[in-house]
Amino acid sequence: MKKLVLLTLLISTIFTSCSSDDDNNGITEANLIGKWQHTNSIENGEEAILDECDLMDTIEFKANNVITTMTFYTNIVVENSQTTTTCKEDSSETGKWSLSGEIVTNVFENEPYTGKVLELTNTTLKIEYTDEYKDQEGNTVTDTHIDTYKRI
To answer: Which end of the chain is more exposed for a tag (fewer CB within 10 A), N or C?
Structure first.
């Protein structure tokens, strides 16, 4: 009888340790909150070449569902045959964000952008965005972007 009770306890422990939280792979609002720095982009299956300024771009998910982004561009100045390259702030936006399952929706100036969170760990955030539009011939074109960030 003791063996049966121990076996039952062991089985119940295994099943209770596999909670439904495991189904979302850690994709929760609490885990998403934080400041993230851009590290990689894949556009339509090909890795994009990011310069040092692109790698300064950040996205911050705040606890009050406010999102802020900051992007940078490469500023090249040629003076007296000398070229100087610096990173300059391109834009800073503030909006709202929400998370439903693995779908994150960011709203800037009443324009929603949705993405699928592919990976969310303590150090890595990977989001896939899909854009559909009509080309000049009227054909539907789908672009897929996968952006990877590190927590800072």
So the answer is: N
